[in-house]
Amino acid sequence: MARPLSALRARPQETAAALMADGDIYGLRCARGTRVPAKGGAGAVLDLWLAPLPALARDGWPVEHARVFVLADDTAHAVDMHPGPRRYLHRNPGPLATLCLQYPRDDAALRWMPEDGLEPLVTSVHRHLMYEEAWRRTGRWPAEDAPHGDRKAPHRLRTPAARQAQRDWART
Amino acid sequence: MPETASSVAGAFNLYDATLNLDKSERARAQKRHQEITALLVASGLVALTFLQGSFARKTMRKPFKDVDMVVVMAERLRAELERPGGPARAMALLRDAVAAAYPSARFDVDGPSAHALQVTFPDLPFTMDLVPALAGDGEIVHIADRDDNRWEWSNARTLNRVVSERNVATDDEWVHQVRMGKALKDRYADLDLCGLAFEALAHDSIFVKQPHDVALADLLRHASTAVLGKILEPTGVEDLTEEWDDDQRRRYAERFSALSRRADEALRLRADGSEAAAVDVWRSVFGDDFPAAPPQSASDALAALAAGGITSTGRAVTTSRAHQPNRPARSWRAR
Predict the structure, then answer these.
(1) Residue B1: what pLDDT?
(2) Of B297, B328, B333, the CB nearest to A100
(3) Degrees (nearest 5) of the Cα angle A117, A22, B309?
(4) From CA B27, how far away is CA B22, in angstroms rounded?
(5) Are B309 and B322 a contacting pair, CB within 8 Å?
(6) Which of B297, B302, B310 is closest, CB to CB, to A26?
(7) Which residues of chain A from 72 to 111 reach within 8 Å of chain B, CB to CB?
(8) Which one of A143, A155, B220, B258 is separated from B158 by 20 to 30 angstroms, measured CA to CA?
(9) What's the CATH number of domain B19-154, 3.30.460.90, 3.10.450.30, 3.40.630.30, 2.30.29.170?
(10) Contacts of B164 (CB under 8 A, 6+ apart)
(11) What is the pLDDT of residues B191-209, one digit of tens each?
(12) What average pLDDT does the structure give for chain B?
């Protein structure tokens, strides 16, 4: 059972410590939670240091530092805290430069939702950072992604694998 | 170096082989047991002998350290041995008889113990521990205690029988599974419960023949709560936890619970066809003596990351029943 985002907003330090202690997120080397004032109530910032999967670590992939902002309404945004210049395929332009973890018009099966809780959010952020590194190394995004920008009709799923994933992860 | 195994069954078979006693050493122990029995019976001192302990029950792991041999003294000596000093007298009689036949044998090299005359033979890498006993009712014997100068009730023969019956019921798999359970003592210093406690936990959780991984998962699941209460040795007479304190129980429960969660994850992975990932997880339970799974390539890991899960050992898998579910999503960018 994942931790609710409300726990992070209410007790950010303790929740970060509990994430570490539980050991439920592979590669989580360090987590630090901080309470921040946010529009409509208390928000939280969660700093995460995430090691790559062993298969990637063998090839020298780096430990990533991500920062997750959880707002009072439980919306969440993640940014890469890498100190130097870096190329990204799926990162929003603008000063905050949030990572584009998902396409908001996809079926709910293919999206993290606030009620999923904290661990799935961290998993999603971790995977995204590993994918960005894969793209930097190979020029290929390892899974189906959505075209940039939006239009009147939602971007349709292109591959049988993505359609199958949507069926497998359908929310009941 | 442990070998690599891509299937769970193969990995457990390889691991089992690393725990088994050396066959030639086992044969030498049995031969020396028979020789000493023949010698002592012929001398008129002894009515019969039988083996006790983990060697007798076939639950002993490497390294082979000692063979416990219960020596039931001849009835004609009962009156003499039941007098004060009788237990020590019995050991002296055995010592003299063995020394006459094996002049190079040494006795009680590690210091005298209460129950056994320890015999060290220069040609054997293990000791033979002779435990004098007086016959009791049925399977019961009364074993010598030279420290307290008394004969102590023992149902070791019943224990041998009960364990053997369970082993037969599992088609000889049970003792192998017990050895694997006991091997956890070497990996986790906080699991300092006695070997017989592992046998008792296995006796209360493994009843029929089943694959090693299923049996070990059952054992760990049972142990995670059983350590909070009484654990009776397999004959149901003695509570092995009588002297445990609450901290000890809590420590054991935490460790077994953590191991049990991993074991259950490994079972789910195997059930969903992720054999190598399951081997990985079992290796995290048993340590580096357990065979490794073939390493996952970076490209395989990235492909599996699309949807499924991440195991507790960090392998990306396509099943969502790994330790850490990994919901698919399409990355995107607003502009």
Answers:
(1) 53
(2) B333
(3) 60
(4) 9
(5) yes
(6) B310
(7) 89-93, 100-104, 106, 109-111
(8) B220
(9) 3.30.460.90
(10) B57
(11) 999 999 999 999 999 999 9
(12) 96
Q: Is A139 an 8 Å CB contact of chain B?
A: no
pLDDT at B307: 94
pLDDT, position A39: 76
Contacts of B145 (CB under 8 A, 6+ apart): B87, B114, B115, B151, B152
In chain B, residues under CATH classification 3.30.460.90 are 19-154
d(C-alpha B157, C-alpha B140), whole Å: 7
Q: pLDDT category, B287, cuts 50, 70, 90? A: very high
**Closest residue on chain B to A131 (Cα):** B302
Q: How far apart are CA B266 and CA B6, in angstroms?
A: 13
Q: What are phi and psi of A20, to 5 degrees?
A: -65, -45
- CA-based max dimension of chain B: 101
- Give the B window 33-62 contacts with A, CB below 8 Å: none
**Residues 303-322, chain B, touching A (beta carbon < 8 A):** 303, 305-307, 310-316, 320
State the span(s) of chain B assigned CATH 1.10.1410.
171-325
Q: Which of A83, A91, A49 is nearest to A67 (CA)?
A: A49
A90, A110, A157 ranked by CB distance to B333: nearest: A90
Mean predicted confidence (pLDDT) in B98-107: 97
Quick: pLDDT tens for A44-81.
999 999 999 999 999 999 999 999 999 999 999 999 99
Give the integer Cα–Cα distance in Å for B110 and B125: 14
Looking at per-residue pLDDT, the higher value among A109 and A150 belongs to: A109
Domain count, chain A: 1
The secondary structure of residue B235, as a DSSP letter, is T
Residue B50's pLDDT band (cuts 50, 70, 90): very high
**Topology, domain B171-325:** Poly(a)-polymerase, middle domain (1.10.1410)
A20-41 per-residue burial string, b: 16 or more CB within 10 A, e: under 16: beeebbbbbeebebeeeebeee
